[in-house]
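Long-time lurker, first post. I've been practising inverse folding by hand and with some scripts of my own, and I keep getting stuck on stretches where the structure tokens seem ambiguous. Below is the full token string for one chain I'm working on. Before anyone asks, I'm not after the true native sequence, just a reasonable design that respects the backbone. If someone could post their per-position residues I'd love to compare against what I wrote down in my notebook.
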């Protein structure tokens, strides 16, 4: 086989076996998560396709794109347990798959078709027993 045929075969297989979002958006995404009352140090758990880990608000969350999404659960003893899902939307590069129809399925299967919102606010509800004279306990 000539070198040209080998290069064309390699290029063709790359194009056919990858989606546009997978090629352009592969890797993790960084998001900023804050509490609704601007309180710092509130304990939360972040769950993504990469796993589950504890952190405190405000937090920088790093996660791989996934069909599952990213959830932030308030676990602090002075706040009601709430779950916030970081919103996601289809990345513009996903629509470039019109040039390679197989890419739609590849990007969906890998989760790389999704882009997370870069800023998210977690709604916080302070528990009554943690309030003293309408002020926050320190």
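-- Answer (accepted) --
I ran through it position by position. Result:
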């Amino acid at each position: 086989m000539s070198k040209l045929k080998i290069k064309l075969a390699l290029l063709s297989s790359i194009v056919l076996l990858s989606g546009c979002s997978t090629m352009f958006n592969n890797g993790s995404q960084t998001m900023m998560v804050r509490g609704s009352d601007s309180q710092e140090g509130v304990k939360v758990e972040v769950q993504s396709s990469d796993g589950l880990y504890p952190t405190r608000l405000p937090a920088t969350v790093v996660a791989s794109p996934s069909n599952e999404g990213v959830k932030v659960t308030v676990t602090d003893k002075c706040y009601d347990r709430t779950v916030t899902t970081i919103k996601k939307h289809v990345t513009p590069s996903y629509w470039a798959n019109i040039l390679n129809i197989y890419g739609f399925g590849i990007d969906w299967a890998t989760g790389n078709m999704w882009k997370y919102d870069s800023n998210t606010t977690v709604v916080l509800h302070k528990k009554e027993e943690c309030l003293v004279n309408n002020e926050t306990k320190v």
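A couple of notes from the structure itself: The longest strand covers residues 29-35. The two ends are 74 Å apart (CA to CA). Happy to go over any region you disagree with.
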